[in-house]
Design a protein that fits this description.
Elements (H helix, E strand, L loop, with lengths): L14 H10 L4 H11 L5 H8 L7 H11 L3 H5 L8
Helix pairs in contact: 2-3
Length: 86
């Protein structure tokens, strides 16, 4: 049976990177959600919290908006070299 989870059991690979980058830029979860809404992605603070904790899947469209809002690239946010996607 196929399970849609990362090796560490989370539902996404960007949660930790998102939290670190968001905090480095000085955004609260609510402030970051507001920033994403201005860019056109309809999410709220709870969605950000669930993404960061690995409880929520992230679509490719959401990934692009998140990267734009953080001024980074998907590879950087995914920490692709350490993702261990066997």
């Amino acid at each position: 049976m196929f399970i849609n989870k990362s090796n560490n059991g989370t539902n996404n690979l960007i949660g930790a990177g998102l939290a670190a980058r968001r905090k480095k830029l000085g955004y609260s979860q609510r402030g970051f959600a507001d920033r994403l809404q201005i860019l056109g992605l309809d999410v709220d603070k709870n969605a950000i919290q669930r993404i960061e904790s690995g409880k929520r899947f992230v679509t490719d469209i959401e990934l692009i908006y998140i990267c734009r809002a953080l001024g980074t690239t998907p590879n950087e946010l995914l920490n692709w070299n350490d993702a261990n996607c066997d």
